[in-house]
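Deliverable D4.2, example record:
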Amino acid sequence: QEPLKLFCEDDQILICVVCDRSKEHRSHTVTPLEEAALDYKEKIQSQLQTLKQEKERLQDLKQASERTVEEYLENLDAERKKMTSEFERLHQFLEEMEQLLLDQLDEMEMEVRKQQKESDIKFSEGLSILGDLINEMEENCKQSTSEFLQNVKELLSRFKKEELHLPMEISEDLKEKLSIFDKKYISFEKIMKKCKDSLTFELQEK
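Output generated by the structure prediction step:
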């Protein structure tokens, strides 16, 4: 086997003298290994120099950027402290308003839950009655024809007599309270929106 002393530029592989004369590589650019290596090393060194210069430039830009960012961060921190002081009083007022509304909601929630509990009891009673009647009817249907016909009139009579009184989900009084609260909260929302819009406009203008 011939030693690989040549480099095919087209295929980027090492070849021997015999391969150089073959049809596969005859039309290709072929150079001695040392010459090819020297040529590529020079190209790489040139690119390395360019890359090092680019790296140095980027490092300088990075340092300048970090200094600028640090200045901005210091300014922002000062502004944050000033805003925090101004907003604390507003936060306190809004928290008081929030607590007032939440207390009203809690009170109405307790009333809703109380009425729900009462409704659940009445619904359970109604379901129990219907369940008993359904079981009795199903058992009656399993009886013999004579027994079934003997009891059917009484069973149907009981079905007609069982009248369920469904409870109201929410009382009219509580509905009125909820309606009043909704109106108050809508007014509150409008005031807050107007305030936010005004502040947003002023801040955008500046």
